[in-house]
């Protein structure tokens, strides 16, 4: 998931907040996730706008596992992020649906790392859905959903 709409760029990118639209996007996608995928684990960027997005999603979803991860910042290394996510999946078998809340461009690169050849462009608040086969360490990209095209 890409974070919701944020305030304009500034010198301290990590401190940008969600706008009121971004807060609405996060809550709407939280409702959509609850109805369609029921995530049980959350991995979120330390940047404020990603943390605020996660808080909006958490209003409608209960997570068994939550962690803030500095590897999923905008300029993060997608291979390291994918490896870390796969390690967490293996370590937490009780969690069957994972939500990663991050930023462009790393969310697109992360999808490509997990499902080669698929690099969707994420609108703010958008969620890409992948099916992960842990035994093969392979993912299949299924779809992408943005706040303006989901019904809740």
How would the blueprint of this fold be written?
Blueprint: H1 20-36, E1 41-44, H2 48-58, E2 65-68, H3 78-91, E3 98-101, H4 106-114, E4 127-133, E5 138-145
Region (Disordered): 1-20
Pfam families: His_Phos_1 (PF00300)
Protein name: Phosphohistidine phosphatase SixA
Q: In a nutshell, what does this entry contain?
A:
This protein is of the alpha/beta class. It has four helices and five strands. It has one domain (14-149): Phosphoglycerate mutase-like (Rossmann fold, 3-Layer(aba) Sandwich), CATH 3.40.50.
Which CATH architecture would you pick? 3-Layer(aba) Sandwich
Q: For the residues shown, what is the average pLDDT?
A: 97
As residue ranges, the low-confidence spans are none
Placed side by side, the strands forming the largest sheet appear as 2-1-3
Largest sheet: 3 strands, parallel
Name of the CATH homologous superfamily: Phosphoglycerate mutase-like
Number of E-type strands:
5
Structure report:
The protein has 152 residues and is of the alpha/beta class. It has a single domain (14-149), classed as Rossmann fold (3-Layer(aba) Sandwich), CATH 3.40.50.1240. The chain has helices at 20-36, 48-58, 78-91, 106-114; strands at 41-44, 65-68, 98-101, 127-133, 138-145. Strands 2-1-3 form a three-stranded parallel sheet. It has a two-stranded antiparallel sheet with strand order 4-5. Strand 1, helix 2 (48-58) and strand 2 (65-68) form a beta-alpha-beta unit. Helix 1 packs across helix 2 (48-58) and helix 3 packs across helix 4 (106-114). The chain starts with 19 loop residues before the first helix and ends in a 7-residue tail after the last strand. The mean pLDDT is 97. Residues 1-20 are annotated as: Disordered. This is Phosphohistidine phosphatase SixA. Pfam families: His_Phos_1.
